[in-house]
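WARN no homologs supplied; continuing
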Amino acid sequence: MSLPRPNGLARTSVRFRPASFAGSFVALVFAAMLVTMCGVLLESGVRAHSTPERYADTPVLVTGPAKVSKQLGKGEGKYTESAPLPERTRIDAGLAGRIAAVPGVRGVIPDVTFPAQTGRAVVDGHGWSSATLAGTREGAAPGAGEVVLTSAAAGASGGAAKVGDTVSLTTPGGEVALRVSAVVPGRGAHLYVSDVDAQRLAGHPGTVTAIGVLTAAGADPGAVARDVRAAVAGTDVKVSTGDGRGAAEYIEFGDTQEMLTSIGGTLGGIVLLVAVFVVAGATALSVGQRRRDIALLRAVGATPWQIRRMIATETGLVALAAGVVGVLPGTLLARWWFGAMDSRGLIAHGVTVSVSWIPMVVAVGAGALTALGAGLLAARRSAKIKPTEALGDAASERVFVGWFRLLLGLGTLGGAIAVTRIALRATGEDAVAASGGVIMLFMVAIGLLGPILAHVLVSVIGWFGSRFGAMGQLAFDNARANSRRLASAITPITLAVAFAATLTFMFAAEDHHASVQSRDAVTADRVLAGPGFVPQTTQRVAAAPGVASVTSVLNTSVVVVRDGGLQKESAQAVGGTTRDLATTLDLGVREGSTDALRAGAPQPEGGAIALDRQLASALHGKVGRPVSLWLGDGTPITPVLVAIYDRGLGTAAATLPRAAVERHVETPWDARLLVRFAPGADVRAADAALTGLTREHPGTSVDDREGYAARMDKDREVNKWLNYIMLVILAGFATIAAINTMVVTTAARSRELGLMRMIGSTHGQVRAVIRREAILVGVIGLGLGLSVAMASLVPFNKGAFDTTTPYIPLPLCLAISAAALLLAPLTVAPVTRRLLRVTPIDAVGAKE
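OK structure emitted
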C-alpha cells in the first residue's frame, strides 16, 4: 500500500486535525493583523494628500518651500535628506509681476495670511484682494481700520459680531481694534482687512503667504504651472496644482505625513520582528508536537523530501488562511488609530486613510514565509533520521539544540553582550541609540538557546521548589526532563515581560524626568499661560505693581542634522525684561552662560544659542563655536553655542533670543510669561494686577510654580496616549503569544496527565504539579525578561538622563511582576481542568 501524496496528506491533516494547528493559526492571525495595521498607516503617510479648501478655485498656487533639504555623506555615499518645515515660509511679493506675464495666466492674486486672535478663537486674517480665493465675492472692500468677517468668523468673535461693532484682535503686528464693515458668506472662518493693513498686521512687509494663479479660458493648468516654474526659476518657491495645493495650504501636512510614515515604518519594523519571533516559535512548537506522526511516516517509508513537502503544504495552508482572517481586523484597527489621532488634532485637514492590497500581501507573505521556514527547520531532524530510529527518537526529548543553532545562539548572545558594553561606555545620543538593539539581540539569543537556558535555570531554580513536598519534587523532575517544552512557554513570557518592562519604565522615566526638569526650571513667582501674548502685553505685565522682571517664552522648532538625517527639535525664544534668566527660567546650565540670550544683550557674530546637552552632543557642539541649523521657516543660521544645559526635556532642546526668531515664525506670540516679584512686594496686590490683565486675554491662566507644574503634568498625561498604544500593541502581542503557547503545550499533555492519574495521582495532585510547573515558568520568564529590560534601560537612562540608575516606579514593577507570575498558572488552570474531565484510559489512548 503506497503512501498518500504529501499534498493530499497535508490537506487531510489540516482538515481533520485542526487542533494540531490552532496555536500557529492564532499567532499568524495576530501577526497578520498588526503587520497590516502598520502597513496601512505607512501607506497612508506615503500616499498622503490633502484637498485644498481656501485655494480650491485657484488652479495653480505658488507658495514657499514646505521642506528643507540637505545633501549628506561623502563621495559615492552622498544622499539627500529632507524634513518638513515647522513654520510657514513666505515669498517675495514682487514675484506676482513675473508670474502675471506668463502666457495662459489670466490673473494673479497675492494672498497675505496672518493669525488673528479674537475673544474666543484664532482665525485667519487676509488682505481684501484675496477674498475671492475663499469664495467671498460679496461686500465692499474694508477701509483703513475696518474689517470684513465671514459668517463663521463673526460667530467666533466673542459673540455674533454685527456691522458697526468693534472687535479687538491680537495679530503678529500687535493688538488692534477694528470696526466691522460687513459680514459676508464664505468658506471657513476668515476676516479681511485692507491690503495695507494686512501687510502691517502680518508683520512681514514686502512678502506674501501665497500667490494664486488664475488661468485663461482653455489653458491647461499643468502647462501653465510648468511655465510659472520656469518664470520663477532661481528661487525656492513651490508651484502646486491639484491636491498639491492642499499640502501647501496646510502647514501641518508635512508633520502628518512624517508622523504616519514614522509610526508605520518604525513600529511596523518592530512588530514585524516580533511577529517573526512569535510565528516561528508557534510553528516550531506545532511541528515539534507532531514528531511521533512524522516518525511514523518515516517508519513506513516516507522520504525526507515527502516529509518536508507535507510540512510546507500544511504551513502554507494555515498561513494563508490565517493571513486572510487577520488582514481585515488589521485594516479596521488602522482606521481606528487614525481616527483617534485625527480627533486629537494630529492629522492635517483632508488627509485620509489609504488602503490597498500592498500591506495585506506583505502581511500574509511575511507570515507564510516565516512559518514555512520555521516549520522546515523544526522538522529537519525528524525528516533526516533513519526510518528504523524514527519512533525511538520521537519518544525522547532532546535537551540540547543542534550545532548550527547553538553556534548561532552563542554568537547572538555574544553580540548582545558586546552591544550592551558599547552602550554602557557611550554617552548621550550614542548610548540611547545603542540601547535600542540590545533587547532584540537578547531576545533572539534566548529564542535560539531556550532549551539549554530552560534546562539550566530549571535545575537551579527548580531545586528550591523540590524542597516543598512530593508534588514539588515531581514538578521539578518533570520540568527538567521536558525542558524543551518548558522553553517554548518561557520564551514568549520573557518577550512579554521584556517589552512591557522596557517600554513602561522608559515612558515612565521620560515623564518623570520631564516633570522634574520642568519644575526645577521654573523659578518665577508667577506664570501666565494662554493662547498667546504680544510684546505689548509683556511690557504691561512688567509695569504692574510689585513685578521686578518678566521673561517671555515663544515656542517654536528648529531643524538640525542628526543621526544621518534631518530632524525637527523643540526650541524656545526668550525675551522680556529679565537681566538674569536664571531668576525666572533656570535651564540648569552646565557649561557656558545664557547672558547673551537676554533681550538687548550683545550678540556674537551669527547670533547666540544654547542647547540641551543631548542635542549638543548629537551636533558635536562646543561652547564658543558655531553650530548649523535651520529656523522654523527654513532660514539657515550658524549661531555661536553660548551654553549647554541639562533641563531640555522639561523646557526645550534649543534656546535662542526672541529677536532672532520672531520674524521667522508665523505666529510670534509668547506662550508663557514668567514673572518675578520684587523683594518685599505686596503679593496680593501683584496678583490682583496680573489677574486684571488676564481679563483682556480670555483663556489666560495665572499660576504659581506648583500650580503651573501641575498644569504641565496634566498636559503630559493627555499627550501620553500614543506611547501607551504602542505599549499595548507590542506587549499585548507578546502576551497573547505567551497565552497561546501555554494553552497549546498544556493541551498536548493529555496522555501524560492520564498516565499520572492511572498510577494513583488525584485531581488535586495533578493540578498541583501543573501549577508548580507554571509558577516555575513564570519565575524564569520574569527573571529573564527583567534582565533583558535592565540591559536596555541602563544605557538608555545613561544617555538620555545622565544616570545609570533606571527610574522604576514600584507600583508598575509590582504590576508587571504579578502579571507575569500569574499569567502561566491562570492560563493553564482551565485547560488542566478540561483535560481532567477525560477518563484516564481515554486520555492515554487519545490521538496526539
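The chain has a mean pLDDT of 82.
OK
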